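The protein record filed below.
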Amino acid sequence: MGLRFTTMGIENPIGFFFEALYRSGFYWNFLSFVQVLAAVLLLIPRTSFLGAVLYLPIVINILIIVVGMNFIGTPIIVSLMLLANIYLLIWDFPKTKILLKTLIEV
């Protein structure tokens, strides 16, 4: 946490993107913290649903980034991560259904 994700130079669009994120300071550390928090919540059976809900926007955002920046091979891995997350939400469908109903009513 708090370290650069890559050593690519800023002349590369991917390196430029990650350097901009890194230089944002607080936001970079916030992203790291939330990813670690989601992972820990997923590992604990009692909080796994909350971890899956928290991880969903993270993995969707990562998928958009890797597709938009033309990463090679990574979209396949991230798509599988997204499918695994959706599977976890379907696994706890009664909780997911309550959450969706609450979001729709608001």
Notes: Residues 13-105 form one domain. The CA atoms of residues 35 and 55 lie 7 Å apart. The two ends are 35 Å apart (CA to CA).
